[in-house]
Amino acid sequence: MGKYEDLVVQNKKYWWQYMPWKEVQARAKVCDIALLPMGAIEQHGPHLPTGHDTLQLFPMMEKIAEKTGAMILPCPWYGAHPAHHWKFPGTIPLQNDTFKALVKDIVRGASIAGYNKFIIFFGHGQKFAAMPVAQELGIEGYFCLSVMFEDMVRDVHHTVMEMPYWHADESETSIALYTHGDYVDMSKAAAEYPTPMLDRKYVATPSDNALNKILRFDEGTTSFPEITDMKIGVIGNPLIATKEKGERYVKLIVERFSEFLEHIKTKYPAGVKIPVTG
């Protein structure tokens, strides 16, 4: 194993923090899309690292940047969390206002270097915080989108995975085995199924493509507190996870998101500010 940094960032040429400022500016003249990967520090059972939600983003971002030329902004390791995540050892949640203030300052600062299109890209359930901040940045005049990568592949989720996407389960563990397998200890993996607060037919998972469910998992208090309802911190069965499933899943995400970025680049070339306010 190499240096810790080398295990996380493989292609430094795509990351803002490894470039001098003149190169940062020059790249904006070619592609002025800046991707902000937003991670989280959160317990992921006994077999996955607490940084899973962040670690998985690095290889995804690098592959997308390689395909599209988009800039990758430095990644904050912390994120916002739904209420049921709080107080579990290993989880370090940001308050929603802290999260929003952090994202706003990052976008405001990056725009000075010539970046006009911003996309918050996250694989952790913090849509409830990311969507409002994207709207508030829009009011300030910034083109900003909020993207949760699981949403891109809900229509094909069950062609790759056997079970719905939950937490530290088949899906997350498969992705981890592919993106940061050095930090996964499958000898400690075990299945766990916490008590549903509400019947699952009313609550959509991150992978659920049903449009008739009343709630998403993060739309209010839809789950009991993890600290009282879990023994090991898993929702689902990680024992059926494989690296091959994770690779197929990540490749689909990269392909679909890259296609979307190419659409933005074609419709609004570098240097064009999208008129988001009147």
What is the secondary structure topology, with strand pairs?
Blueprint: H1 4-8, H2 21-28, E1 33-38, H3 52-55, H4 57-68, E2 71-72, H5 96-111, E3 117-122, H6 127-140, E4 143-148, H7 157-160, H8 170-179, E5 203-204, E6 215-216, H9 226-229, H10 243-267
Helix pairs in contact: 4-10, 5-6, 8-10
Can you give me a brief rundown of this structure?
This protein is α/β, with parallel strands linked by helices and 278 residues long.
What does this structure look like?
It is a single chain. Helices cover 37% and strands 9% of the residues. The chain has ten helices and six strands; from the N terminus they run ααβααβαβαβααββαα. The strands form two sheets. Strands 2-1-3-4 form a four-stranded parallel beta sheet, with helices on both faces. The longest helix has 25 residues, at 243-267. The termini are far apart. The mean pLDDT is 94.
